[in-house]
Design a protein that fits this description.
- This protein is α+β, with helices and mostly antiparallel strands.
- Helix content is about 30%, strand content about 35%.
- It has one domain: Gcn5-related N-acetyltransferase (GNAT) (Aminopeptidase).
- It has 6 helices and 9 strands; from the N terminus they run βααααβββββαβαββ.
- Strands 1-2-3-6 form a 4-stranded antiparallel sheet, sandwiched between helices. Strands 7-9-8 form a 3-stranded antiparallel sheet. It has a two-stranded antiparallel sheet with strand order 4-5.
């Protein structure tokens, strides 16, 4: 069994863009989606330096290694991204962990940190487009299912959840 040093959560730096993108793609690949999906998700899963500068992005570190991250963003108005309706509000846009570190509590630590940061910023709720394989994680975190939404993958629906910040 893999033993981790204590997990530290700190603000991501623009220089972390490459490892965060790697984590996003590898975490998504863990679910063995068709290769064609990753071409569609290319922009969604790529974390750029500009994204890190413009969003709230935190990384989980185990010693010298980045093992996961999350990001929060705010949409000032409703909009469509292709066929996908994205409502105004604060969003938990990413929460990804290297697959070899799944089921070690890192996702829970990142979620708790996101809640703490949201409280400090006066955010009352986070909306989340949830990968269907991750629904159980968000259920356990106290998020509530709102509705199924069209996905960037034609013909595929994904759940949208809301996490109220108390």
């Amino acid at each position: 069994m893999l033993v981790l040093p204590a997990i530290q959560i700190e603000k991501a730096k623009p220089s972390d863009y490459s490892v965060l993108t790697e984590i996003a793609f590898l975490a998504k690949r863990h679910w063995n989606y068709p290769e064609s999906y990753y071409r569609i998700w290319q922009d969604e899963l790529t974390v750029s330096k500009d994204y890190i500068n413009q969003s709230i992005v935190y990384k989980a570190q185990a010693g010298e290694f980045v093992v996961g991250f999350y990001s929060l963003s705010e949409n000032k108005s409703d909009f469509y991204s292709g066929d996908v309706f994205v409502s105004k509000g604060h969003w938990l846009e990413h929460l990804f962990i290297f697959p070899e570190y799944h089921n070690m509590g890192i996702g829970t630590l990142l979620m708790q940190h996101a809640i703490t940061i949201s409280k400090k910023l006066g955010i009352s709720e986070l909306l989340i487009f949830v990968d269907p394989y991750a629904s159980g994680f968000y259920d356990k975190a106290g998020a509530e299912f709102l509705y199924n939404s069209k996905s960037s993958i034609p013909g595929r629906m994904i759940p949208v959840y809301r996490l109220k910040i108390n």
